[in-house]
Amino acid sequence: MLNTQGRPTKPERAEPSTAPATISGDRGLDHEEGLIFEIGRTDVTGVDLPDIALNSDRLGGLRRKSIGLPGLSEPETMRHYVRLSQRNASIDASLYPLGSCTMKHNPRLNEKMARLPGFADIHPLQPRKTVQGALELIAELSRWLMTLTGMPAVAMSPKAGAHGELCGLFAIRAAIAARGETRHRILVPESAHGTNPATAALSGFTTENVKANAQGCVDLASLKEKLGPDVAALMLTNPNTCGLFERDMIEIADAVHAAGAYFYCDGANFNAIVGRVKPGDLGIDAMHINLHKTFSTPHGGGGPGAGPVVFSALLAPHAPLPRMVHDNSGLRFIEEMADAEDAGLTPFGRMCAFHGQVGMFVRALTYMLSHGADGLKQVAEDSVLNANYILASLSDVMSAPYEGPCMHEALFDDEFLKDTGLTTLDFAKALIDEGFHPMTVYFPLVVHGAMLIEPTETESKATLDKFIAVMRALATEAKSGNAGHFKNAPTLAPRRRLDETLAARKPILRWKPQ
Amino acid sequence: MRYLPLTPDDRRAMLAKIGAHSIDDLFGDVPKSARGARFDLPPHAGEIEVERTLTAFAERNTPAGKMPFFCGAGSYRHHVPATVDHLIQRSEFLTSYTPYQPEIAQGTLQVLFEFQTQIAILTGMEVANASMYDGSTATAEAVLMAHRITGRKRAVLAGSLHPHYADTVRTMAGLASEIASSPVAPPGHAEDLASLIDENTSCVVVQNPDVFGQVRDLKPLADAAHAKGALLIAVVTEAISLGLVTPPGDMGADIVAAEGQSFGNALNFGGPYVGLFAAREKHVRQMPGRLAGETIDADGRRSYVLTLSAREQHIRRERATSNICTNSGLCALAFSIHVSLLGEAGLTRLAKLNHAKAIALADRLTSIKGVKLSTPAFFNEFTLELPRPAFAIVDALVDRGINPGVRASRLYPREPKLANHLIVAATELTTDACIDAYFKALKETA
Question: So what's the ipTM on this one?
Answer without folding.
Answer: 0.98
